[in-house]
Amino acid sequence: MDLGLAGRVFVVGGGSAGLGFATARVLVAEGARVVIVGRREQRVDAAVTELGVESAAGYAGDLAHPAVTANVIETAVACFGRLDGALVNTGGPPRSTPITTTDEAWRQAFDSAFLAPVRLAREVSLHARRNDVEGAAICFVLSISVRSPLPGLTMSNGLRPGLAMLVKDLADELGPPPNSVRVTGVLPGSFATARSGNTDTPVRQGDRFAAVPLRRIGDPLELGRVAAFLLSPAAAYVTGTVVAVDGGACRAL
Questions:
Q1: Which domain, by its residues, includes 73?
Q2: Residue range 16-42: mean pLDDT, rounded
Q3: Residue 1 lies in a domain
């Protein structure tokens, strides 16, 4: 299937590693160009080099800082002449429990894991509408905690469901023509990434994955392919929804 991504340009948050980089790889393989955003300049540069400077540009910065969002959009236009959407991926809050999470920890988590994604989605969609971008799309990388809480991840359990509702809200506001912007999300389960600590081969059998119907953790590219599809014109009638990519682990609808 031709996803219709050739020539399109996307900002990829958290794009220097893990699920963000995997999605960037798929987008580039499908003919799109990407602006990789990450906090560590060395890792951003390495990701751009691996993807190829003709297909990727980089911006080192923290999307929790408001100025970074505007700078990232400017970088996309300066390097590639357009911007068609974004993978909104900012990483998750640190581990905690309801009793041990302080007010300050909640504030920091809100700024980085909630407000930063909201800001990026808002500014990218406004740019698309101001510039008459046809077929613009935004995809949020959330968590399976949207549907079922994960032990020890209190702040993610509290914030991610709100972003999933925002996907619905944004889709309502941005859907009507002209210049419709589609908004979707993906809900990752366990993947072989450095952040998760599961960096070994994603195909492993045994008791550790007994709760996963496919009996393994995921390869990041498996998430990347779903996200790339949702960002593509091939998904032109998909908006306002979130898709679980978790090997069937979540038992909730």
A1: 9-245
A2: 97
A3: no
